[in-house]
Backbone:
């Protein structure tokens, strides 16, 4: 079997990026500015789907907003535990040594959130956003799972003057997903999204890691 | 904006499954046996990609093997922290109350694994499998990230008589991924895989959750 056993992680990444470049260089992705291309490339790298970035959308200078928020040690609010566990604390600490686990917030499995959702017949996702309303200003919001997490955040922006630094809006699925992303496009705050049904926790994580590359490389 | 705010999690899942059924009922997926269909449906649900299950492969009665291993509280060895954090301990405990966090094993960020990988110029993934060689027998192996994690596990099966209960082999990417899955197909132990480049931590997690549905529903 033709397996290359002795490659290092860095060598595998370099070879992967070479293949991605080869397979996208005659597509519109090749015309993206460098910082946006890094996001597209990481999305393709994470999914091995050459077309995953075709609906990638940047609005209101989100990469610069993300860089500045990371440098200020902004709270990072995640809609799933998988997002929180996928974020590299080591890399965050290279950007700002003040980063600790406590700055990576996910309330989806908090007892009070579970109880409230069950009692009210609503999703845990929406109850978690409500719980963290007071943390939204200046935070980086990562949504890779629940569309109502994104929609509730957007509602706070539009109707309650919340001012997150950056929203990475990539919920996934068949119900409320397309709609929540359209709702996001009515915001004038910085955001990155994948329009349509596609998304996922790994995609939200890798988008923030791609932003971090601009500081760390 | 046409967002349906007041759906419960169960209602969203039910509606999602309805859409997936509608969009796949004239495809080969519709002919899958019930237990395999549940896996395909969850993969589509997790990615919102109707074609994600087109290369889904089952071999050596893997769903029954998984059910029996879960009922015996088998170790679940994960190649990424995202997999471990995505697994539902609450559901596992409904199957076997002896399940604890300690049965969900991931060594990718262990200090000794990081040190060894750096020293030897190899991947952390392969060093993590080596560290857990003594745990492979009767374990459920979840690979959603690193192809060399899958390849090393297969090598232990073929050349060192390791006997995992079930391998869910869904690494993702451009280097060694297709090859590691082809290597898996030479095993005579139970496995589920997504042939080709596609895969991911969320897909490995959701495959095990789909197997669990057969016990819990």
Residues:
């Amino acid at each position: 079997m033709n397996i290359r056993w002795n490659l290092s992680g860095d060598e595998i990444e370099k070879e992967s990026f070479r293949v991605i470049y080869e397979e996208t260089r005659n597509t519109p992705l090749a015309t993206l500015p460098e910082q946006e291309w890094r996001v597209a490339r990481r999305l393709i790298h994470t999914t091995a789907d050459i077309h995953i970035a075709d609906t990638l959308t940047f609005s209101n200078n989100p990469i610069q907003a993300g860089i500045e928020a990371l440098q200020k040690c902004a709270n990072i609010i995640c809609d799933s535990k998988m997002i929180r566990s996928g974020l590299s604390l080591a890399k965050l600490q290279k950007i700002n040594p003040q980063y600790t686990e406590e700055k990576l917030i996910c309330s989806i499995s908090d007892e009070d959130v579970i109880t409230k959702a069950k009692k009210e017949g609503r999703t845990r996702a929406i109850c978690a956003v409500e719980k963290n309303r007071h943390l939204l200003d200046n935070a980086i919001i990562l949504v890779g799972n629940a569309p109502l997490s994104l929609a509730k955040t957007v509602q706070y922006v539009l109707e309650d003057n919340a001012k997150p630094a950056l929203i990475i809006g990539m919920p996934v699925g068949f119900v409320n997903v397309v709609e929540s992303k359209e709702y996001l496009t009515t915001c004038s705050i910085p955001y990155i999204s994948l329009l349509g049904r596609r998304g996922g926790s790994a995609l939200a994580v890798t988008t923030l890691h791609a932003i971090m590359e601009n500081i760390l490389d």
About this structure: The first strand of chain B starts at residue 56 and ends at 59. Chain B is about 50% helix and 10% strand.
